[in-house]
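Shipment paperwork, digital attachment
Item: protein structure file
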Amino acid sequence: MELAPAEDAEAYFAALSELSRQTRDLVDAVVLTDVPDSELVAVTAELAALTDRLRALQCASPRPFEFGPDGVPRHAGNAVTGSANPHALPLVIHTTPERTVRAELSFRPTHEGPPGSVHGGVSAMILDHLLGQAVAVAGFPGMTGTLTIRYRGRVPYGEPLVGTAEHTRSEGRKTWVDGRIALPDGTVLVEATGLFITPSAWIEQQRPV
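Attachment content:
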C-alpha cells in the first residue's frame, strides 16, 4: 500500500474516518430501507462500483495502533473504538479522576438482536473492551481470560446509554474488573465481570533494562 505523505497523514485519517461514518449510515439505511426492488438493484450496482474503487489499492490489515498528533493513542481499525472501522460504534472511552473508565454510547439499528433490542453478543463485545481499558488504566494491561455476562434488562438501540468499568483486584498476572451498561439514570441493563491475564512478554517489556 502507498502511504499518504506525512504532511497529509491527518487529512487522510480524517477522510477515512468520514468515509467510515458515512458507511455506518449506509448500513443503517440498508437495515431499515423499504424502497422498491428496482431501486435496490440500482443501488447495489453503484455500491459494487464504489467497492471496486476502494479495492484499487489495499493494505494487508486494518489500520494499526498509533499515536495521534496530540500524543493520544488511537486504534482506528479497532472493531469497537476504531473511527476508521465502519463496524465500530465507534466507542469513545474517558478515564475518570478515580481511574475508572466511562463511555456514553448509543447503539444503532444494525445492532438489533431481539426485536427492538441490542444483540446480547454486541453488549458483551462493548463490555469486554471497557473492562480491558479499565485494567490498562489501573496499570495492569492484559488479555481477556474469562468474561461473565449477566443480562438484567433489555438494551435499547437509538437511546443514550452509559458504560462504566473499574479494576477490583490483582494477584500476580491476574486482574479482576467489573463493568456495566446502564441507562442515564443508573438503571443497570447488563453487568460483566472479567478476569484478565497479563502476558509474560508484556511484563518483560515493562522491566527496566
